[in-house]
Design goal:
four-stranded antiparallel β-sheet; Rossmann fold; single chain; binds adenosine-5-diphosphoribose; alpha/beta; L-2-Hydroxyisocaproate Dehydrogenase, Chain A, domain 2; six-stranded parallel β-sheet; about 325 residues; Malate dehydrogenase
């Protein structure tokens, strides 16, 4: 009997459950939802499975509080953790840095459980602070670097492309470009590499409009938190599922992902958002593109921000080559 792809999603909260929904709708494989809260992964999995006759997906979808059901997964998306929240008293948001200590313990524990049961899986990290949590997953899993990938660039790029399509009133399908660097205030949008159906963006929008879009993209996560009071999840889940799809269908898509660099772009032992070819093996190639001096400078600021977070962890620190 042939076997379907198996996708585990750890954390059946907003991002995890929404990712399960879209992965099912795209028929990407059987799904296991894991969470520590009793009843939640089971309830969401059953609810989603009951949608199958309406939506027409023939998949096994299970929810659990344990890890035995996750054995031999092909891809594991880890969203477990505490999201950014707005303090009701001070009105201040939890910073990504403040999350390091809490989420490192959660993500480390989850990674050990997963790695022991699915030694060949590709791990996708969604938990924040993203770049730091990638290092936790890499260290705790012992997996080769190709199989530990962070979801940041696809989400940041999606926001960037959406804002451009909105400004020009053209289809999102025709916007090409990407956002590199770390997830957060130090991301590196590349307007000089952005086009609309091949037409350079710089010919279509004035610089002040492009700058405003870049600013909005940088603050994209915070904008949603400001409105909702908690993190967004439709776009993060969609971005995670795009990566899962590229892997399980071996599509060799070129997507911006947080990958552990070994000298590319002048960085070593640091997870940074760079263009990657994603296929069955995970990150099959890191594409090195030519960056201008300004972009290199922005990538360096971004790399420094990741280094600061990584320095809070009890693992090796990233160094520039
Ligand atoms: N094991 C399994 N699940 C856990 C664990 C754990 N040790 N600890 C927490 N969880 C679960 C929570 O019970 C919750 O259901 O992780 C889920 C997180 O879901 P939400 O709180 O809804 O957060 P979400 O918006 O989905 O964000 C998840 O992605 O974007 C990042 O910063 C965000 O790190 C956060 C993650």
């Amino acid at each position: 009997m042939s076997r379907r792809n198996k996708i585990t999603i750890v954390g059946a909260g907003n991002v995890g459950a929404t990712a399960a929904h879209w992965a099912a709708q795209k028929h990407l494989g059987d799904i296991v939802l894991v969470d520590i809260v009793q009843g939640v992964p089971q309830g969401k999995a059953l609810d989603l499975a009951e949608a199958a006759p309406v939506m027409g997906f023939d998949l096994k979808i299970v929810g659990t509080n344990g890890y035995d059901e996750t054995a031999d997964s092909d891809v594991v998306v880890i969203t477990a953790g505490v999201p950014r929240k707005k303090d009701p008293v001070t009105g201040k948001f939890t910073s990504r840095d403040e999350l390091v200590e809490i989420n490192r313990k959660i993500v480390g524990g989850v990674t050990r459980e997963i790695a022991s049961r699915s030694p060949n899986a590709v791990l996708i990290c969604v938990s924040n602070p993203l770049d730091a949590m990638c290092h936790v997953m890499y260290a705790e899993s012992g997996f080769p670097k190709e199989r530990v990938i962070g979801m940041a660039g696809v989400l940041d790029t999606a926001r960037y492309k959406y804002f451009i399509s909105e400004a020009l009133n053209v289809s999102v399908d025709d916007i090409h470009g990407m956002v590199l660097g770390g997830h957060g205030d130090t991301m590196v949008p590349l307007p000089s590499h952005t086009s609309v159906a091949g037409i350079p963006l710089t010919e279509l929008l004035p610089q002040d409009k492009i700058d405003a879009i870049i600013q909005r993209t940088r603050g994209g996560g915070g904008e949603i938190v400001g409105l909702l009071g908690y993190s967004g999840y439709y776009a993060p889940a969609a971005a995670s599922v795009a990566m899962v799809e590229a892997i399980v269908r071996d599509r060799k898509r070129v997507l911006p992902c947080a990958a552990l660099l070994s000298g590319e772009y002048g960085y070593k032992d640091l997870f940074i958002g760079v263009p990657c070819v994603l296929g069955k093996g995970g990150v099959e190639k890191v594409i090195e593109m030519k960056l201008g001096d300004k972009e290199k400078g922005m990538l360096e600021i971004s790399a420094n921000a990741v280094r600061e977070l990584v320095a809070l962890l009890p693992y090796g620190k990233g160094q520039a080559t």
